[in-house]
Write a structure and sequence with these properties.
Structural class: alpha+beta
Strand content: 25-35%
Bound molecules: nickel (II) ion
Strand order of the largest sheet: 3-1-2-4-5
Radius of gyration: 16 Å
Helix content: 25-40%
Number of helices: 4
Number of strands: 5
Shape: elongated
Length: 137
């Protein structure tokens, strides 16, 4: 079994809040990410897939195809968008990095199984010091 990771980047806005809470309570729970006037992050997305090396190519899979899937299914929906308002797979969810990683996994996994590889990990880096990894369970 071998693992390979593709990195993509996107910039997006969000706000972490519960509408039933006051701005003060949202600030207490969600910190600066609760700013009522939105804010953005320069996110990095690391998608790791696993499988066996194809003896004909020496590759696990065609990385170009993986990159196209990630960009079409995920980056295109997120880049320069408001995650709370504009991203279909995040509707009705808190726009946390955790929920984003799970949402991205669900968007990607059916397409990656077409590539003779399996999705292993979705890692979303929100800031220099904070990132989330999701392994599908
Ligand atoms: Ni934030």
């Amino acid at each position: 079994m071998i693992y390979i990771t593709r990195r993509e980047r996107f910039n997006a806005a969000h706000r972490l809040f519960r509408p039933e809470y006051s701005d003060e309570k949202n600030l207490e729970i969600f910190g600066k990410c609760s700013n009522p006037n939105w804010h953005g992050h320069n996110y990095e997305l690391f998608v790791t897939v696993k499988g066996e090396i194809d003896p004909a190519t020496g590759f696990l899979l065609n990385l170009k195809k993986l990159s196209v899937i990630i960009r079409e299914k995920v980056i295109h929906k997120l880049d320069h968008k408001n995650i709370n308002l504009e991203v279909d797979f995040m509707q009705g969810k808190l726009a946390s990095t955790e929920n984003l990683a799970v949402g991205i996994w669900k968007e990607l996994s059916p397409h990656i199984s077409n590539l003779s590889a399996q999705l292993h990990c979705v890692k979303v880096v929100e800031s220099e010091n904070n990132f989330v990894e999701y392994f599908g369970e």
